[in-house]
Amino acid sequence: MDIKLELVAVPVTDVDRAKAFYERVGFHADHDVTVSEEIRFVQLTPPGSACSIALGKGLTRMVPGSLDNMQVVVQDIEVAHADLRARGIEVTEIVDMPWGSFVYFSDPDGNGWAVQQTKPRTAR
Predict the structure, then answer these.
(1) How far apart are CA 46 and CA 29, in angstroms?
(2) Which residues are registered as beta bridge partners of 31?
């Protein structure tokens, strides 16, 4: 039996601001549907990913900014770091760990993201 993670809700205060931020990061906006005054569903997908995020109104009871350490994986952390900076995203310097190399950033609400290169740069 396959079990695939396909959608993760990200709690935000301002849907339009968050959508614009994630598009700036490079995520593709797949859907933006207002169902009612209480429900708006925005789905965005990172390039090459089978899993998307959902932003919106009436989607989750999580507190905006409470999602921590969502992780995406890239082939080259230096390219990812430079790309994010070029897009105007505030990212940390590259951190090398025995299990990978990372950069970190947060969305406007403080939801935290880790970008990982699974093979540490020091293992090249």
Answers:
(1) 9
(2) 43
